[in-house]
Design goal:
With 92 residues, this protein is α+β, with helices and mostly antiparallel strands. The chain is built from three helices and three strands. The chain has a three-stranded antiparallel sheet with strand order 1-2-3, with helices on one face. A hairpin with a 2-residue loop joins strand 2 and strand 3. The longest helix is centred in the C-terminal third of the chain and has 17 residues.
Length: 92
Amino acid sequence: MSYKSGTPWQDRLDEACREIQIGTPVFQIISDRRGGRTAWSSRVTINGKTLQARFWYDGKNLNNAKEDAAEMALTYLSGSSPASPSASRGGW
């Protein structure tokens, strides 16, 4: 798989699923009420495995949530382990 640097993660994931001949990714948008606001995230199911986006987003950034989940799924398919948010922030 070779991607252009500007290729969205969702497109990369679709292509990877086609290449390894598994079903199309299924995205789900989820929300969490936090005080007076709602935080949004996404999860994606591929080949029976559901992967959660790492972060929560403002409602106007729902595509970012799907991109985050797609990145996690593509990382899962490639067999590498992504840095967790806490590890990438020095463990705080």
